[in-house]
Design brief:
single chain; 208 residues; mainly alpha; 2 strands
């Protein structure tokens, strides 16, 4: 879904009658919201827990896709773009933390495996989205993207990690959140960098 938005959102906004500057503003809002969410991800995880944060972010991201399909008003679109960017990029550092927790001593292998799917999505999503848009229209494309996100949320809900951070397993601070974001974004560009969340003597640390 990320690639479908990145590649086709601007064209969609133009198609529904938005002026070029407004369409560009909507796309910019997607990225702007992402900058805020990556900084706040640690706070969100501390409040609701790692797994719940991932599931809720994906569910709300999916809802944003449905709203994108249902409304064409400029201000509604800007609001949807803001929400979509926020929840999409909230998933990024949360996903990095989940990979490190699930992978434990095999965090490098797990990160590489997760990165494989990220790279494959860049191959499959543009082709699938183009096929859906040409054959059925943008609304069907956005609805299918929402369905994919909801399926991902169902898988996240079954991940065997603590629902809430504990004093031992650890909460994620804002500075750790920024580190998680940077490392995960680096891994999605083909880097082999990975991160592992650890706890030692009741304190939380990061190993890189």
């Amino acid at each position: 879904p990320y690639w479908a938005v990145t590649l086709f959102a601007f064209d969609y906004f133009i198609t529904i009658g938005m002026a070029a500057y407004a369409a560009g503003l909507a796309v910019a809002v997607l990225a702007l919201a992402g900058n805020a969410s990556t900084l706040l991800s640690g706070v969100v995880v501390n409040r609701v827990g790692l797994r719940r944060a991932g599931v809720l972010s994906l569910l709300l991201y999916g809802v944003a896709f449905l709203l994108l399909a249902a409304f064409q008003d400029l201000y509604v679109i800007l609001g949807v773009a803001l929400a979509m960017g926020f929840f999409r990029f909230l998933v990024t550092p949360i996903n990095a933390a989940i990979v490190s927790v699930v992978g434990e001593d095999r965090a490098g292998h797990v990160t590489g495996f997760a990165n494989l799917f990220w790279q494959l999505s860049g191959v499959v999503a543009p082709v699938l989205a183009a096929f859906l848009i040409d054959g059925f229209g943008y609304a069907v494309n956005w609805c299918l993207m929402a369905a994919i996100v909801f399926v991902a949320a169902a898988f996240y809900a079954r991940i065997g990690i603590p629902g809430r951070p504990s004093a031992a397993a650890g909460s994620v601070t804002s500075s750790q959140s920024m580190t998680l974001s940077a490392v995960y974004c680096g891994s999605t560009r083909g880097s082999t960098a990975f991160i592992r969340a650890t706890s030692s003597r009741g304190e939380n640390g990061l190993e890189m």
